[in-house]
Amino acid sequence: MELLDRIEEQLIANRLPLVGITLAAVPYANTPVVLTLHWHGFVEMKLAEVTDANVVAYQPVPSSALQLNERWDRLEELENAVLDVAWELGAWDLARTEALPFVRPGAVEQESRECMGAFGNIPVVIEGQPPVIAEVPDAGDLIEAASRAGYLSWLFRPVRGGVWADVAEDVTLENGGYRNPPCPYLPLPTRNRRMRRTRRVTYQFGRAARLAR
Asked: What is the pTM of this model?
């Protein structure tokens, strides 16, 4: 899975730093994966679309959600790809969330919203604008599958190409905020589908200089 190429394509096209990167998948082989890039930047809001109009407000740049249709056969294979790209882009850590299906007794509304957001279909607007610009044609089917079987999501904050480049205190990074591949970590097993609560697993990559002695 060419995750790094897709991320770098978006960095070149948008020319903005990233705050974070998330991926989401349902636990069925060879289903689409949704990659969401969270940008740091603001859009000027004017009273009129003319050159000299005064700026009256600033809105955050929407996140970008993309559907990836590359083949994967096992969750371990998919997570290997995520581990590699998070490692290479200099992330301090990688967090995996194993979310329960939200169509179940005792589920709360927030779980359904989080699932929709993971697959690029947040049903809200902020000052009239969507918080995510999505190119996810199969979002409805993915959310339906996740509602019954749960889903997995991964979150990391890149140093290379991100807002963290100037504040990263990490002795494992090369100049430029990256690490040389491959990632030395192996995927940890996911729990079975009978788990009763959402599970979070964190892979720790970075080491601070003051703690490395």
From this structure: 0.88
Sheet holding 18-25, edge to edge: 132-135, 63-68, 33-39, 18-25, 151-156, 93-99, 199-204
Q: Alpha-carbon distance 177 to 168, whole Å?
A: 8
CB 183 within 8 A of CB 83: yes
For residues 67-91, one letter each, b for 16 or more C-beta atoms within 10 angstroms of the residue's C-beta and e for the rest, the string is: bbeeebeebeebbbbbbbbbbbbbb
- Asked if 123 and 113 touch (Cβ cutoff 8 Å), the reply is yes
- E strands within the chain? 18-25, 33-39, 42-46, 55-60, 63-68, 93-99, 132-135, 151-156, 199-204
pLDDT tens-digit readout, 155-189: 999 999 999 887 778 999 999 999 999 999 999 99
- Which residues fall within 8 angstroms of residue 72, CB to CB, at 6 or more apart? 1, 29, 30, 33, 78, 81
Distance CA 77, CA 70 (A): 12
Minimum mean pLDDT range among 53-57, 152-156, 192-196: 53-57
Q: How far is the C-alpha of 69 from the C-alpha of 65, rounded, in Å?
A: 13
List Cβ neighbours of 176 (8 Å cut-off, separation of 6 or more): 160
Whether the CB-CB separation of 125 and 62 falls below 8 Å is answered with no
